[in-house]
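Reposting from the mailing list since nobody answered there.

I have sequence plus structure tokens for a pair of proteins and want to know whether others read the tokens the same way I do. The first protein:
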Amino acid sequence: MKLSRRTFVRTAALASGGAWLTRGIPLLQAKPLGLAPGVQLWSVREELKANPEATLRRLAAIGYREVELFETPKAPREFRKRVEDAGLKCVSGHFELKDLKDPATIAAAQELGLAYMILVFPTLPSLEGQSVDENFERFVPLYEKISLSDYKWNAEQLNRCAANLKRHGIRTGYHNHAIDFKDFGGKLGFDTLIENTDPHLVCFEMDCGHVIHAGHDPIAYLDKYPTRIELLHIKDLVPGYHVSTTLDTEDKDTNAEIGFGAIDWKKLFATAARHGHVKHYFVEHEGKMAHPPLEALQISYDYLNKLEPD
């Protein structure tokens, strides 16, 4: 759904699958918040395509325990078995608005064992029912004109979808991009979504990298909305990134392994721990990186595993 999902240079090579079997490897758990460490599978989409079993086992061998999906597998039950056989668990997935309303997609989410269906990007009322993911570049000029009323409409849609998904045992969330911090005369899109959605039905997955990309502070947002942010995307940028809420800057900036970017993660996790509402976090790397994906995810995990609270 993000622009870099269309233009990212595919450079990573998959390591030999046999070397990464998790059998006999002790269970590891990164320290922040005492939660099972998660990874957004978009980070390893090319590796999954080439060798899904070996990639999932490598993630488990690194120490990750939960995964978040970026697309709905064609065979949900079989994919869930692959994930669980590797020692991982499907917790969350990213979806478009039309998917949150589609009975077949909801059934697939249940087969996958998902606890969350996350709206990954706002939908324009004029594009309702169309696939944003498949037409992203074509829709960019329209999205640059997104309005405050569009965000209020998205909030209404989230409330309606969440009421239905709750009956299916699934929680509804929203994942932010930098565009969601567009300023409408002092009111931001992201704040509008939070303030116009039912706190009992809709939660938020804060993408920390997109927050700083837009020139805002993810730590301040944890303080501002302590009970609404339930999931985190642990993503960072190399200092010197372009501050922007437009959709054409993401590929111009370099993602950083966790601990080597602009965000004070020790302070961020301390703030999240103080509020006690974050239930899951997923490391995500996208766009330009200094290391191949699996190597970058190892570096990020190692940092998180050594992170000591104040």
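The second protein, same order (residues first, tokens after):
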Amino acid sequence: MIAGEALVLAAFALPAVGSVAIALCGRRPQLRETATLATAVLLLWCTLSLLPTVLAGGRPGVRLFELLPGLAIAFSVEPLGMLFALVASALWIVNSLYSIGYMRGNREEHQTRFYVCFALAIAAAIGIAFAANVFTLFVFYELLTLITYPLVTHHGTDKAKAGGRIYLGLLIGTSMLFLLPALVFTWHVAGTTDFTPGGILQGRLSGFALGGLLALYMFGIGKAALMPFHRWLPGAMVAPTPVSALLHAVAVVKAGVFSVLKVIIYVFGTETLATEASTDWLVVVAGFTIVAASVVALKADNLKRRLAYSTISQLSYVVLAAAILAPLSVIGAALHIVTHAVGKITLFFAAGAIYTAAHKTEVSQLDGIGRRMPWTMSAFTIGALSLIGIPPAAGFISKWFIMSGAAAGGHFAALAVLIVSTLLNAAYFLPIVYAAFFRPLPAGDERQPHGEAPLSMVIALMLTSTATLSLFLFSSPLLQLAEQLVAPK
């Protein structure tokens, strides 16, 4: 077996094996957390080891077995999957570091189950990232939903169970009603579901049939949170903050928009869609989701709810960019998966730190908190600037490419949506920053002094906020990967 194939298998197997080690160390918290961090570091090493090969044009992979002709469990590392795997593996390390402080600081129960499920969720995410075909992606996509359900319902309260039912119902429902039929029809028409540069449907479908199949995929990939199939995401905010970070930045929603982009590029092909079927309806749906979710976020007082609707809006940036079908917008969509991940995880880390140190959950309670928690709120500010798209934060780069693609393709309505969304982003983030640093503490808070959250949480915040700034300055490897998606076939 060549080194590339071994690394692909190791990247998938490491978090799965690590989950066993974590479970065995359950009675010894320090050893359990060490096993978590060690596994996460090894996974990042594996994915980074694959990066030079992929940048050089290589596509390491392995085919495990074939269920039916054209339906195989197989892995192959292409540029988009490499981006997603880098996001998942790198952020697992900082999320694990953050989780140690959060779970201990809040005296959470079932901590071993939490770490085990988290590791298994990362294994599923890597399976999605390296899926060589739609069938493999579908299998690990469903596994990710099932594995993360115990994390969403972690607290075991009636509210947590209700949120879990919505989570499971919408994600499994959209998969069974839309995504599975799309998979079966693709296999029937093309005889394969392999991801292929330029797509596998060229010359096989056109017009209404092609557009209908695209609709099945877009609404079947419920993790992308396109309206009206978005309610699972705010409903899942009953989970602990590290789980919210997993949902919004590390694995779940990123699996959604990653799958959308991968299907458009490697199943349909942007050129086929541009000539054989209209994607204007998808631009409209994504544009509506962007603006509507931003308006809801603007009105939300609960901080995690505001961040949740911000995520719904930002996810549709990727869908909108993919639907525009312009090379620049496709590059922007791929980059936005990364830049949104580091910016949004920073914001959720900040929200969890505020809850842990000050027991505050509402935006209206944050007056003056920047004086007590300057590191946390400075990191929050950097994450907010990234999601607004203000340099020198990384979000500016992906937004620039998406807007440039919209302008180059003559999608001026989409460009207007992006501009309006940017203003709304500023309207629901900047007042939080202003209140935290420039408004006085409420009178009652002066008698209840508190400082920053536990050190491991603050370190994680500093790492992700630094990454948000660093990706603006050192984005070349990510840009090279994204550019390979639109390189001549």
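Reply #1 (J.P.):
I read it the same way you do. The chain has a mean pLDDT of 89.
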